[in-house]
Specification:
Elements lengths: L19 E5 L3 E5 L4 E9 L6 E2 L4 E8 L7 H4 L3 E5 L6 E6 L9 E10 L6 E10 L3 E8 L10 E10 L4 E10 L4
Parallel strand pairs: 2-9
Antiparallel strand pairs: 1-3, 3-4, 3-7, 5-8, 6-7, 8-9, 10-11, 11-12
């Protein structure tokens, strides 16, 4: 052993967490007022071959409203929730209740962050635009001509249709005309 020279050397290890990706079914969603915006987010381990989904992740949500000082994130977080998808491991269902919105065309940005132990965090975002409900008002039946010297009232039936939800409401109107 005396004929060998002692050698010193170093070994360096780099430990890192596997890379991940968070996909959403759409980055832009438009919903009518009072409907829930539903987002499906899938969390992947991208270093597996084939890629595998990551179950039991923690999902963090940050909600902001574009250009609005009226709505604050800490109050908006009461209107959003998430849960694991019942039948698809690694898929998470995010639901935004829009009944609180009082402005047409309000844009809500949802930043989604997924993390799981010993993997890297992944983020994505969705912009939800909440608009008024599309409606149609049509004349159905009633008086189409009013003679000012004889008639003292106006009667008509109208149909108001909520186009987004296929709901019809028929309204009867009886309007008394002013007399001279």
């Amino acid at each position: 052993l005396d004929t060998y020279a002692h050698q010193n050397f170093s070994i360096y290890f780099t430990l890192r967490k596997p890379q991940t990706r968070l996909d959403v079914d759409s980055n832009v969603i438009e919903v009518p007022w009072n409907d829930n915006a539903t987002i499906l987010a899938t969390y992947y381990n991208t270093e597996e071959s084939p890629e595998t989904t990551i179950s039991d992740a923690t999902i963090n949500l940050n909600v902001t409203v574009s250009g609005s000082s009226t709505y604050k994130s800490h109050t908006l977080n009461n209107w959003i929730s998430w849960k694991p998808h019942g039948t698809n491991p690694g898929v998470y269902v995010i639901t935004l209740n829009t009944s609180w919105v009082d402005v047409d065309g309000l844009e809500i940005k949802i930043e989604i962050e997924a993390e799981y132990v010993q993997t890297q965090k992944a983020t994505n975002f969705v912009v939800v635009t909440v608009r008024f409900i599309y409606i149609n008002l049509e004349y159905v039946n009633g008086t189409t001509e009013i003679r000012s010297d004889v008639d003292t009232y106006f009667m008509a039936d109208f149909r108001l249709t909520d186009i987004d939800h296929s709901v019809n409401t028929v309204s009867y109107t009886h309007l008394t005309l002013p007399t001279n």
